[in-house]
Amino acid sequence: MSFQKVGASKVPFIEGTQASVRSQQLLTSTGIGALDALLGGGLPAGAMVAIEEDAGNAYAPYFLRYFLAEGCVHKQSLFVVGSRSEAKDILSNLPAASEGSAPEEPAVAADVDQMKIAWRYETVGKVQSTIGRNTQAQNFDLATKMGSEVIDRCQVTTYPDGQGSSLSYEQLFEKLLASLKTDCHSKVSGGKKNLLRIAIESIGSPLWVDDDGMSKLVKFLLLLKTFLRHSYAVALLTVPSLAMDEKAAHKVHRYCDAVFRLESFSDTDRQAVGAFADAHGLFHIVKLPALHVVSSALPESVDLCFKLKRRRLAIEILHLPPAIGEETDDLTKQFSCSTNISKSKIDF
Length: 348
Prior knowledge:
Elements: E1 17-19, E2 26-28, H1 33-38, E3 43-44, E4 48-52, H2 60-73, E5 77-81, H3 87-91, E6 95-97, H4 112-117, E7 140-145, H5 148-152, E8 156-159, H6 169-180, E9 196-200, H7 213-228, E10 233-239, H8 246-255, E11 258-264, H9 267-272, E12 281-287, E13 304-308, E14 313-317, H10 329-334
Parallel strand pairs: 4-10, 4-11, 5-8, 5-9, 9-10
Antiparallel strand pairs: 1-2, 2-3, 6-7, 11-12, 12-13, 13-14
Helix pairs in contact: 6-7, 7-8
C-alpha cells in the first residue's frame, strides 16, 4: 500500500533529473558535485542561481561551462547568452565528460623538508575536505574539450545573434519567453518534456545598453523568475557584483534563489598565507534555495575555497594547518653540542 499526498502532481521523467527526497520537485546537477551538495542535492527545476564574479572574472566562466556541459551529456536544451564573449566561444570551450571517477592530479613526490616534519603531524587527525561525494554530477575533464557532435545533439539557442549585436534585457526576455513557452518546457502543456538550461554571462555589466539599466535588470530578473516557476528550466547567471553598488547587488540577491560569491587570491596573497597556497580563492555562500520546503539545506561547512586544477574545478572545505610553532634559534643553541655553549647552561 502506497501513501501519496492528495493532489500531488506527478513528476515527469526527464533525462538528467531526479526526484527530490525532500519535496515534490525535480533536481538536476549543476555539473559540479560539491555545488549540488550545497544546493541540497541538486538544482531544483524552476530555480535561478547567481555566481558573483571574482576580480578579473577568471574563474566564474568555468561554472557556466560545467553547467552547460552537464546539459549536453543529457541532450537537454541550452540557451546561452554571451556578454563578454560570444556564445559560440562559450560552447566551443565546454569540458568533455570523463569515464569512471573524477580525474585526479598527478601525485607529487614529497621533498626532504616535508619528510622531516611529517612526524610532527602524526597525532593530528585527518580531515575530509571534499563535499558532495554522492551526487549525480558527471565527471568532466577541463583538459579535453567536448566534441561538436555532442553539442549538436542538443537544441541550442544563443543571444545575441551575431558579433557586434547589442545586449538588451527586453530583447533577451522576448527570446527567452519563446523558449520557455514551448510544449517540451512548459508545465501547463502536455507532451514529452525536456529541461532547458539558461546560462547568462556577466548580466548587469555596463555592456548592456538599456537606458536605466538597473531598473530594466530588476524587471528582467523578476519576470524570468516568474516564468521559470512554470517551466522545466533552470538558470545560472554570472554577475559582476564588484562593478555594482551595494543596493543593486542586494536586488540581485533578492530575486535569485541561490547566490554564491567568488573571492579570488592574487599570487602574492597565496604566497603570504601558507594555508591558501593550493587554493585559488574563497567560495562564499550568500543565499541558499528554499523551494517548496520549509528551510534550505544545511551545508557541511561554510568555510569553503575553490581550486582550479589542470583537469577540474573543485570546491572544498577550507582547513587551516595545525598551529605548531617552529623551533627557535635559542632552543637550538640550548641543545647544541658546539663549543660556544654558555657555561650557565652546561657547567663542567
